[in-house]
Design goal:
single chain; alpha+beta; Thrombin, subunit H; 7-stranded antiparallel beta sheet; globular; Peptidase_S1_PA; Protease do-like 5, chloroplastic; Chloro_Bact_Ser_Proteases
Length: about 300
């Protein structure tokens, strides 16, 4: 008969020493344990390194993103005081035939809006010819051009501007406002030579009348050809995907250093849609640099002087 749970006394004594006595491992077992401990330590170390590296990389990415964001903010803050808002006005004739521009633009119809930028401390402003074309061709004496700008102290001022010179072949014009008693900030002029497709660019202007609007993009293409207001072709235009809409015309296209590389001029719009396709164009600043001095001095481009 077998009784469960009963252990013969002679088997108890041999079992006790086995629980208490430590048998030294063989050399092969020692090597195995040493390797196992080393692997466990290495695994722990690698896990810790991966964890630390992941968090370091994330922190680095956040820091880089913050620096890029701060750089764009600084770019806008430094450049926007040099950008102006241009408003084309048509005055209403009074009962006695006289015309007046009132401070709040009463009795004046807004014909269109555009942008421009301060060229020098004397109050010369660069813009597109098509922005002020009605004033340039006005025969009625009812057209006016009003410019809103910021002085060096950050104060907003509005001035009636006069046309100094125009070049319809390159869609460029120079206005002048009286800045006596006001210090203005000319824009920083760069170069369009050496531009590369893919580099960042920024447009500042007044699309649809929304002042001081910043849009960002890249240089999408170089050496493009766009139509000029006089029917000629403007060659060497810069293509960009930085949004340019009605009211952006005449404003600056700037690079990452805050230097003007072009004058925002046109956007490709699908017929009947009224929407920008993201294909936008700017006149290269090197063309502007060659043209503007003649417009300031002679009122016309060099080729039209004689």
């Amino acid at each position: 008969m077998v009784v469960l749970g009963v252990v013969s006394p002679q088997y108890i004594l041999p079992l006790v020493p086995i629980c208490k006595t430590q048998i030294p491992p063989s050399s092969s077992e020692t090597q195995y344990l040493t390797r196992r401990k080393a692997l466990m330590f290495t695994s722990s170390l690698v896990s810790s390194f991966i964890y630390t590296s992941h968090h370091s990389a994330t922190a680095f990415q956040v820091d880089e993103f913050q620096r890029d964001e701060d750089r764009i903010v600084q770019l806008f803050e430094e450049t926007s005081p040099s950008v102006v808002f241009i408003k084309g006005l048509e005055l209403a004739k009074g009962s006695n035939g006289s015309t007046t521009v009132l401070a709040n633009d009463e009795n004046a119809k807004v014909e269109g809006t555009g942008s421009g930028f301060i060229w020098d401390k004397f109050g010369h402003i660069v813009t597109n010819y098509h922005v002020i074309a009605k004033l340039a061709t006005d025969q009625s004496g009812l057209q006016r051009c009003k410019v809103s700008l910021v002085n060096a102290k950050g104060g907003s001022i509005a001035k009636v501007a006069k046309i100094v010179g125009v070049d319809p072949a390159y869609d460029l014009a120079v206005l002048k406002v009286d800045v006596e008693g006001d210090e203005v900030k000319p824009i920083s002029v760069g170069t369009s030579r050496g531009l590369r497709v893919g580099q960042s660019c920024f447009a500042i202007g007044n699309p649809y009348g929304f002042e001081n609007t910043l849009t960002t993009g890249v240089v999408s293409g170089l050496g493009r050809e766009i139509p000029a207001p006089n029917g000629a072709a403007i060659k060497g235009a810069i293509q960009t995907d930085a949004a340019i809409n009605a009211g952006n015309s005449g404003g600056p296209l700037i690079d990452s250093s805050g230097h003007v590389i072009g004058v925002n001029t046109a956007t490709f719009t699908r017929r009947g849609s009224g929407m920008s396709s993201g294909v936008n164009f700017a006149i290269p600043i090197d063309t502007v640099i060659r043209t503007i001095p003649y417009l300031i001095v002679y009122g016309t481009a060099y080729k039209d002087r004689y």
